[in-house]
Amino acid sequence: MLAGPHPAVPADLAERAARRGGRILRRRRAAGTVFRLLLLAAAATAVVLAVAARLRAGEPALTTPPPEGW
């Protein structure tokens, strides 16, 4: 197998590989950007919900209710 003739390699193989690698890299960067934006949106939503829940809870009672049945 090694002693036989080598197969012909297309002349534009390196250019096609570089283009394909560039496309893969751009897609990977775009996916990372989208993931980071979704993560940021989820964090912002969590903060807004936490603040809204805290405001909705009202002020804490200053005294405890009287014990009943003692």
How does this model look, in words?
The chain has a domain at 29-56. The protein is mainly α and 70 residues long. It has one helix at 13-56. The N and C termini lie far apart (97 Å).
Distance between the termini: 97 Å
Q: What is the alpha-carbon Rg in Å?
A: 32 Å
Question: What are the low-pLDDT stretches, counting only 5+ consecutive residues below 50?
Answer: none
String of helices and strands: H
Which bin fits the share of residues in helices? 55-70%
- Beta fraction: under 5%
Keywords: Membrane, Transmembrane, Transmembrane helix
Transmembrane segments: 33-53
Please give a quick description of this structure:
This protein is mainly alpha-helical and 70 residues long.
Question: Features of this protein?
Answer:
rod-shaped, 1 helix, 63% helix, 70 residues, mainly alpha, single chain
Note the topology.
Blueprint lengths: L12 H44 L14
